[in-house]
Design goal:
The complex is a heterodimer of chains A (245) and B (283).
Chain A (H helix, E strand, L loop, with lengths): L1 E4 L3 E2 L4 E4 L4 E4 L1 H4 L4 E2 L5 E3 L5 E3 L3 E11 L11 E12 L2 E11 L5 E9 L10 E8 L6 E2 L9 E2 L3 E6 L4 E6 L12 E13 L8 E15 L5 E7 L3 E5 L4
Parallel strand pairs in A: 1-9
Antiparallel strand pairs in A: 2-7, 3-4, 5-8, 6-7, 8-9, 10-11, 11-16, 12-15, 12-17, 13-14, 17-18, 18-19, 19-20
Chain B lengths: L4 H14 L17 E6 L5 E2 L5 E8 L5 E4 L8 E7 L2 E8 L4 E4 L2 E4 L3 E8 L10 E9 L3 E3 L2 E3 L4 E8 L3 H17 L3 H12 L7 H8 L6 H11 L2 H13 L2 H17 L3 H16 L1
Parallel strand pairs in B: 2-13
Antiparallel strand pairs in B: 1-3, 3-9, 4-8, 4-11, 5-6, 5-10, 10-13, 11-12
The chains are: A mainly beta (245), B alpha+beta (283).
């Protein structure tokens, strides 16, 4: 069973059992030009076996190939082999985009994001999650450099996800705890990707939606000798604590 | 705006004492034109130690206008819970505010419709001992209806936790993982998996392992549960996941093992994890 994203494409191929060697071979090249689908309103397929989801639902696809196995010891005649498989066209999250950013105070850089369903109906995303993975410079858990940062840590990577049917998400880049004196210049950068996964798309593995995005946190000195904390993301987002207490 | 918290408190206590199926609260009532009632449904049966403690929130909109509720990120971060435990009479106030991504908590309740969601109290309250826990639940923000704001009053109830019962706990875990396996959507699977993830008891390990391989997208929750238990069996389950799960899931299992290794003082566990991670890197 193959999951094909609605209004998107998914490759396919053909394998054949070699009765001479007793092994499975990839015979996709030999099957080019022979692909068909059972219902073109659900899925279509091109010369190379690339499937396109046209409508939510299930159909089958098949191809055939003329195969001959060369062997010194065994006489292997040319034979037309036909393969058939199921196609499930499923909705996936699309159009993931940032809606807003704000400084929520106390060093919390807040974002809101939105996405749609490729079918136009968020309820069709019931088998999908949307979320993020954030990786830090090193170590697990990653210990924030303290002082001057609070003596805290982050799971490395930090992974969070929720039901894709929500259609909207928020992202808080927060500071947990108090900054530690003596203050001094310090910084670190984490890398964030937004992604989705659906049970029947890409074998249930994640598909990237946005990123990489750098989440940069730093403690810097002001010209008057006081210190400030800044967190930024390259999508017009910035939050500060200025001056640090 | 009427506040019924005190009468609700009595009603609820009586309900629990009598073993009623559910206790109800009408904690919020707006004006005659703006009416939104919030109800909390409590479990009908006694709860034993390490079980999930689940309340259900119902927001029923009986007006002709859509009501907006803001429950916070992941529909939980705007809940503020204050509680006392049997061995901890000093009230603790907890608001979950986590780093990172979560789904929006803004809920639109259409006229004459009801929004319902589970509140897994173990997220806020550490039910570490049998006995009585007094819990007060508040929402950080009220609801809105058109241009009007509706105040939402707090809700109080007590939860009696009975001593640990491993047999009953195993039955509950089995029921939860069956819900995961039969789920028709991620939301259904995640609701059950989250309850299972908070069963901080070694009994839960084989059920968390089943959830891990259920192919319902709840692998991160199952791994969090195993990491929380972190005994030898849970550690071995995570080690198995390094080779038995897709690469992106094994990354999460590896990360959990690294944290267990970093936090444990048990040399046997440390060595077991170090060897497994080393072997995983070279394979």
């Amino acid at each position: 069973v193959r999951g094909i994203p609605f209004q998107s494409t998914s490759g396919n191929g053909a394998n054949a059992y070699d009765t001479c060697s007793g092994l499975w071979d990839d015979v996709s090249d030999a099957a080019y030009g022979n692909w068909t689908t059972g219902n073109s309103s659900i899925a279509t397929v091109d010369y190379y076996g690339t499937h396109t989801g046209r409508g939510l639902g299930s159909t089958t696809s098949s191809t055939s190939a003329l195969l001959q196995i060369s062997s010194i010891q065994v006489n292997c005649p040319v034979h037309r082999n036909t393969a058939r498989g199921n196609d499930n066209v499923v909705a996936v999250p699309v159009n993931f985009h940032q809606l807003s950013t704000s400084d929520q105070g106390n060093g919390d850089l807040h974002f809101t994001y939105s996405w749609d369903s490729s079918s136009g109906n968020l309820a069709d995303l019931s088998a999908c999650t949307v979320g993020e993975i954030v990786t830090y410079p090193g170590g697990n858990p990653y210990m924030w450099p303290s002082p001057p940062f609070p003596a805290t840590s982050s799971n490395n990577p930090t992974i969070a996800e929720g039901a894709a049917t929500a259609g909207m998400g928020v992202d808080d880049n927060v500071v947990s705890g108090s900054f530690v004196k003596p203050y001094g210049a310090s910084s670190f950068t984490a890398t964030e990707y937004f992604r989705y996964k659906c049970t029947n798309v890409n074998n249930g593995n994640y598909v990237n939606l946005m990123g990489p995005l750098s989440i940069a946190r730093s403690v810097q000195q002001n010209s008057n000798g006081t210190w400030k904390f800044i967190v930024t993301k390259p999508t017009n987002g910035q939050a500060t604590i200025n001056p640090l207490p | 705006v009427r506040h019924g918290t005190f009468s609700v408190w009595l009603q609820l206590t009586a309900g629990l004492t009598l073993g009623a199926m559910y206790a109800f609260s009408s904690a919020v009532v707006g004006t005659s034109q703006n009416e939104l009632s919030i109800t909390y449904l409590l479990p009908p049966t006694p709860i034993t130690l390490h079980e999930p403690v689940v309340w259900r929130l119902q927001a029923h909109n009986v007006s002709k206008l859509t009501a907006q509720l803001d429950l916070g990120k992941n529909r939980e971060e705007n809940f503020i819970i204050t509680y006392t435990g049997p061995n901890d009479p000093v009230p603790k106030t907890i608001r979950r505010h986590k780093e990172g991504f979560g789904i929006t908590g803004t809920i639109a309740v259409a006229p004459n419709s009801t929004f319902e969601q589970e509140l897994l109290l173990n997220k806020w309250v550490v039910f570490s001992d049998p006995g009585r826990y007094d819990i007060e639940l508040k929402l950080l923000r009220g609801a809105t209806q058109g241009a009007d704001s509706i105040e939402i009053s707090s809700f109080k109830a007590s939860v009696e936790i009975l001593p640990r019962d491993p047999k009953r706990l195993a039955e509950i875990c089995n029921s939860l993982v069956a819900r995961v396996e039969k789920a028709n959507s991620y939301e259904q699977a995640a609701e059950a998996a989250l309850e299972l993830r908070f069963v901080a008891d070694p009994v839960a390990v084989p059920y968390l392992q089943r959830a891990l391989y259920a192919k319902k997208l709840v692998e991160p929750l199952a791994i969090e549960g195993l990491e929380q238990i972190a005994n030898e069996e849970a550690t071995q389950a995570l080690i198995d996941a390094l080779s038995r799960t897709p690469p992106e899931t094994s990354v999460i299992a590896r990360s959990a093992l690294e944290r267990i290794e970093s936090g444990t003082h048990d040399t046997k566990t440390k060595l077991l994890i170090q060897q497994a991670l080393k072997s995983d890197r070279t394979s």
